Model the fold of this input.
Amino acid sequence: MKKTTVTICTGTTCYIMGASHLQRLDEVLDPALLEQVEIVGSRCLGYCDANGHGKAPFVKVDDQLIADATLDKVLAQIRKTLAKGAL
Amino acid sequence: MFYDNNANRLRKEILMRVARAHFTKEPADMLDRIPMAMRPKRSEPSRCCIHKDRAVLKYRCMAALGFSVEDETDELKPISAYYAEAARRTKAVAPALTVIDEACSACVTSRYSATNACRGCIARSCESACPKDAIEFRDGQARLNPDKCVNCGLCMKACPYHAIIRIPIPCEEACPVGAITKDEATGRETIDHDKCTYCGKCLRECPFAAISDLSQMIDVLQALKGGKAVALVAPSAARQLPGSLPQLVTALKQLGFTHVVEVAEGADETARHESEEWAEKMGAGERFMTTSCCPAYIETVEKHLPGMKPFVSHTPTPMGFSAAKVRRADPESVTVFIGPCIAKRVEAAKNPEVDYVLTFEELGAMLVGARIDVLECTDSPADSFAHREGRGFAASGGVTRAIQATAPAKAALKPLLVDGIDRKMLSQMRVWANKSCSGNFVEVMSCTGGCIAGPGTVGNPNTARKQLDSSLEKSPSMVAAPLIEASCGTD
Ligand code: FES
Done:
């Protein structure tokens, strides 16, 4: 099965704004869900400098962009994406 | 503990916006627009209205420029005028933690409250427990009369339904020395600077981000233009910014620092001298000695633990050693310490060899403003040579390990660790100073976890600790000696 990719931007802006705390996602994720996702870090995704995307830190769950990301928001999106995939 | 929340992000966003503006051609216009950009028309206000939000944001910008709310003489003076004034400053502002009174939500004064969980029972143990007759019954439920309540908490203990709760005031709760209290007239918090130790705990715990320290960011950005600035990077730099230390060195040089020194080198020096000092003192029959590297602890001793003074080591701090070395090499250099700590600003104000102190948050904002992406930077070596012992100072227990490794009479070392200064620890230390102490070497860290968990950090302390431990393994040692763990603080 193809895994869902969670991309945590660790460019300087996102890192300062909280990405360093989001990197602990693997510690808070349910082991059953953890199996179905792949968590990767990324260089600046380019959203921090462009208008209209919202605030850093940015996280992508597959193609879904999350602005002002928190662990809660990311977890919710992961559940949503996985639920859709299971249909 | 609050490491990453919206209050904390807000502080960083302000710093970033100010730094971004600094690097544009027309900083004035961008600076003056910050409150509007952050609270545009028709946006959801977080307070009563967007105008109040904007007023508070202006005060936050002032703090980011090194001004406290009390510096405001004219409400119409724009942010850009403060910026211009900051750019002309030739010396760091005197350090101070201030309360942005407009932002302080004036948390409740009465600390206890009866909730809906009250069943209005027959026993009414709360009523009988209350010595002040402050419990009243309305609609079959208990209510506390704030005019009579003396905050003793006996009713809470007495209620079998846990229906009475205690509502803490987060900043007062966090302050170990009672320096922050409510001004009875306004209901807002004020800081007593004669008591404040600059530990930064209130700043981090306030859910309204109403407490701020005065940033030296603009001063450093100006100093960088002179081409004489040297960066002194604290041992706790691991994981505070993306990328590795060699990448950070490159980033700092791109920012305009001529040299980048690891303060861990100075910490090596501190360890070497401190262990000699300890051996001498023990030889002379002294009871014990404490470390001296934590500036919030030094302030605590000065203001609250006079009895401890004779026991504090006289060895200069890592920052002191590193700055002195930089100045010896070039007396003209502008020394900028970069670390996790705001109390270091107080230490720097007393040490003429340190010009400025930045937190990792401020450095991060400056890099963003200058559009330097640390992950894109190549590796450069630091202009210093640090060992495992000095690098270990970043986390609690590290100084003890360094002393154990370097002390001449290792066997006799009986270490104790104060891992975070709170009220309980304060009384414990008082006992050590005035009566007896079971150890003969005491490492004191104001922040629980040590510098990697300081108030000016960006990284997560757990990840920082892991990164630090793995880098220590790879670092060369000053000596080859086995490591022994320090026992915990309380007797
Ligand atoms: S740093 Fe994350 S989008 Fe630029």
In short: Chain B touches chain A through 24 residues (CB under 8 Å).
